[in-house]
Amino acid sequence: MQHLTLLLMERMGLLLLITFILTRIPQFRYLLDRRPDWRTGLTFSLVFGLVSIGGTYAGVTITGETVNSSFLVASLQPEEAMADSALIGVMVAGLLGGVAVGTGAGLISGIHAYSLGGITGVADAVSTPILGLLAGLVARFFAEERVIAPVKALFISVFAPILQMGAVLIVNESSPAAIHTVDLIGVPMVAANSVGVGILVAMIQAAMKEEERAAASETQRALHIAEMALPFLKQGLTFETAEAAANVLRRELRASAVAITDTKQILAHAGTGMMPGIQGTPIASELSRKAVQTGEIQIARTKEQIQPHHPAIGAAIIVPIRSGGQVAGLIKLYYPSVRQIRPVEEAFAQGLSKLISIQLDIAMAEQLRSLMKDAELKALQAQINPHFLFNTLNAIVTLIRIKPEAARRVTVQLGHYMRMNLTMTQAPLVPLYKELEHLHTYLGIVNIRFEDQLSVDCQCDPGLESVSMPPSTLQPLVENSIHHGFKGRTDRGDIHVELRRVASGVRIVIKDNGNGFPVEILETLGASPVTGGGSGSTGIGVYNVNRRLIHLFGPEARLKFSNPPEGGARIECTIPYQAEERREAIDESNDRRG
């Protein structure tokens, strides 16, 4: 028995060497991914059935106590038996391919065993398909595992030869010859088949890990190359950016040459075939035009399909790149021969095309988002001016009847204010000193109307004059206090504007002794234009200031509204320092400590 076991193990090793080649077949992934269709299932049933037949032919013929180590036994005599490793193919078929593949491989193996004859022929013909079916059913318990663990596969496969030996005893009605055969070949077959299944599954796992490592390496390579080329391509396809990207791609891809085109002409060519005047040459090859039209990768396999022609260039991969859902250009990778274009190069080209296209779409989305943000800020800024102009014109209409001279001065001040406003609103941020000038010009207008009824006190910490802030931030907030906080009041209105240095930026506080904010709109004020409290206010000025602060500096800069216990209203926000301003603030703080 020991000699027979060693002999089976030796021949099982040869079988495993052959079956390991299966792990290198690309179609083998269909079974590993558990996504076989009926054609793939039929194909692999045949393949594993042939593996099982190979395990039979690699077996050892037993005649009584005699062991015949001949290969390729054509048939067995009624008193002969075959100790083999045929169950390796059947069990692996069921564990990897499922019920259909396992049963199919078992049927093929069983029919072959029946054709050989011998004392085990009928039993093998009956039991082998059943064992393939059972292996497929057991595999369902491990459906979460891409490939069942080798130890589990070995343990499950131990029972297959035992069941097959039981079938031999049942079919032969426990005859002395059958009992003697089972005693002789049972243990060696259990050892050879279970160990063989475990080793083959381990081989498959190793092949998968190798493939995953290769895929990870190619993915990392594609990411690295895209990272190198994208800074140029994001600037748009021009002669300069295309030339820089082509040089990067050629260096990283180690191709004979790399060309980049838009949808009409060659923008750059680096490497073999470079010649004066090639930039700006119209696209002439049929495959390039097809790639532009279909958006699919094309492979030029002959020199006649390549542009430009060069003796050292014999093949090319034409990779379309998309932007905004449309083909924006082509990347052409040139090789000396079509033999250099392996499946890995094609897969890499597919990944590179998708990666660059996705990044270009992201870049376009960022540009559009930036443009939309700028447009929205300008729209919000534009809304403030008509709001203030409307209120001022109403005041002028009133002054014309009762104080014509004051109306004239207000009109002059308004012209000065509007000229200043036009220059300020050209940029999203202005220095604080300009914003204070803007506020004082506004107060010069309203003081003509209110005279001694209004007092505005502005306190600003020294050194904050150059801090950046959105234009027309202070004026609308002060205007809100004047026109809505003091509405219906006859006593003196006091407004305090404080600009204080804090660690994170400049804290702005505007408080008054007016009516305060209506309680019912206090929670929503600044989030949207509101109507409430009987004031008739739409809150558009405060809303616009709040939106611009959030857009430019984030939610932390939003306006905070409250009604202090002592009365009136309070608006507070903190405008963060810009990078340079933050450094200056830190330096000034250190100087003070020193």
From TrEMBL:
Compartments where found: Cell membrane
InterPro entries with a match to the protein in the record: Bact_2-comp_sensor_kinase, GAF, GAF-like_dom_sf, HATPase_C_sf, HATPase_dom, Sig_transdc_His_kin_internal, Sig_transdc_His_kinase_LytS_TM
Boundaries of every Histidine kinase/HSP90-like ATPase domain copy: 465-579
UniProt catalytic activity: ATP + protein L-histidine = ADP + protein N-phospho-L-histidine
Transmembrane regions listed in the UniProt entry: 12-32, 44-64, 85-108, 114-139, 151-172, 184-204
Enzyme Commission designation: 2.7.13.3
Domain GAF: 237-370
Membrane topology: Multi-pass membrane protein
Entry keyword set: ATP-binding, Cell membrane, Kinase, Membrane, Nucleotide-binding, Phosphoprotein, Transferase, Transmembrane, Transmembrane helix, Two-component regulatory system
GO CC list: plasma membrane
GO molecular function: ATP binding; phosphorelay sensor kinase activity
Superkingdom of the source species: Bacteria
Main EC class the enzyme belongs to: transferase
GO biological process: cell wall organization
Protein name: histidine kinase
Species the sequence originates in: Paenibacillus elgii
